[in-house]
Amino acid sequence: MMMMPKQPLLLTPMKRLKQLLLLLLLLQPLYKSLTAVVMKRRKRKYEKRVPPTLAPPSPSNKRNRKSLKKL
Asked: What residue spans carry the Basic residues bias annotation (predicted)?
């Protein structure tokens, strides 16, 4: 087993701050991707809840366009 050099339990505030900043930089892309996934899920849920009459018409959906013309 390799012996790791013992670190003092209480790091100097400056070192601790640097470590925190480094950790934040490393976690940033992960956080961004997670929030993107969550937002997509929320959007999907919202779209399911909204009845088609209230939902904005999508030009690709022909049925939607026809029903709007009748109104």
From this structure: 62-71
pTM metric for this prediction? 0.33
List b or e across 38-51, with b for residues whose CB sees 16 or more CB atoms inside 10 angstroms.
eeeeeeeeeeeeee
Report the pLDDT value the prediction gives residue 58, as an integer from 0 to 100: 60
CB atoms within 10 A of CB 57: 12
Task: Give Cα separations from 3 to 6, 43, 65 (angstroms).
Answer: 9, 50, 70
The sign of the torsion formed by the CA atoms of 10, 15, 17, 22 equals negative
Lookup: tokens for 68:
């709007």
Give me the residue label for tokens 């790091």: 11
Are 65 and 57 in contact by the 8 Å Cβ rule? The answer is yes
